[in-house]
Structure prediction request, 444 residues.
Amino acid sequence: METAPATLEKIVSLAKRRGFIFPGSEIYGGLAGTFDYGHYGLALKKNIEALWWRMFVDSRDDMYGVDADILMNPKAWEASGHVAGFSDPLVECADCKKRFRADHLEDPNVCPSCGKKGTIGAARQFNMMFKTQAGATEDEASTVYLRPETAGGIFVNFKNTVDAFHPKLPFGIAQIGKAFRNEIAPRDFIFRVRELEQMEIEYFVRPGEWEEAFEAWRVQMHAFAEAIGLPQGMLHELEVAPEDRAHYSKRTIDFEFDYPFGRKELWGLAYRTDFDLSAHQAASGQSLQFLDEGAQEKLIPHVIEPSFGVGRTLLAILASAYREDELGGEARTYLALSPKVAPVKAMVSPLLKNKPELVAKAKEVRKELQKVHPAIAWDDNGNIGKRYRRQDEIGTPFCITVDFDTLGETPELKDTVTLRHRDTGEQERLSIADAAERIREAIA
Ligand code: GAP
Prediction:
């Protein structure tokens, strides 16, 4: 089977055409760095988040969830170092006045927009936090920030979580939510955006046990990649050099992915030491010490932080699943999505839409399969080949057709259906109960 490499253009086009992702506020010409998720993109995103939550929170006894507000007391961002240091180097071309991230320029002497030489000015630090005003007054005192990382909402709830649940070390707090960054140059579709979603864990450990926890989370991050169907061969670890690490980190591994536009950061794993809790303790005046009953001492726990961008994960899934081939003499495009994340788990279809008895039976079959998973689509539009193609493009693993044999035309085939496999186009005849079992096994 021939497959063509995914280009970003092809992915962007499929994402829009099939209702995964649209440019933000498109009817007004869009807004740089913003994208809106359509029905299937949203389903894919929710499936990724649900798997993450199940794997890292629900299946464990040492994890607690939190859903903090995006708006936080600005003192929290002063304490965390983001007001002073969450910035990228910004340069401007003296000729065309366009602005760029200095570290993204191919040649620091040539403007990538107008092509002039020697017009790029000196770099200055540009703070990436979005500022807004809380309340009716518009002065410095009312300035608040849209959180630049979900981690902040976790750290300010460390004490609340400890007081409410009395956890023992090590334990973690997890959060999925929006974060905002005024990126100088949003680019590569949903790879670098200004409004992003993160799935983050702050895992609190005894200071002497950070290396062990770091290693365990490194392994867990690979396990998550496997669970969502990312090919391990496209995932690479990069030990981040000290000068490139965030201000809070003493060790960082970037999990990089082979995107169509090159090998780029997908997720991060950082050792944040006690930097954040100590800083929040000093700035808030509240004790964030933890009574470690095992060791009978009070301490500020150290932190391992696995951080996952939802959009980058979704893009990696789309890029690695995109396929073009020829089936039955016709070119087709399909997404080889893991059934676990696929927006639709199966499609049910009557062979002919103008035969009421077929339609009624197919509806009955769909209802039966929806007991396994609700995301079972219905399609009776156009010929069966077209229905298959539509499902292939959104990555539906199985298409199930109800025909006259299902109704008992051939008595020994009564209550059997055909089940077509997305990747090979192969079909098998099996009982409705076995079709349900196939779906159950695939999404387990
Ligand atoms: N709390 C740690 C933190 O925020 P980060 O490396 O700045 O670390 C974590 O971001 C993850 O968030 C990245 O690995 C990436 O998946 C995602 N991310 C960061 N900036 C992004 C952006 N502008 N657009 C999309 N995803 C982004």
In short: The chain has a mean pLDDT of 96. Residues 149, 151, 181, 183, 192-193, 196, 198, 200, 265-268, 305, 307, 309, 311-312 surround glycyl-adenosine-5'-phosphate (CB under 6 Å). The CA atoms of residues 255 and 332 lie 32 Å apart.
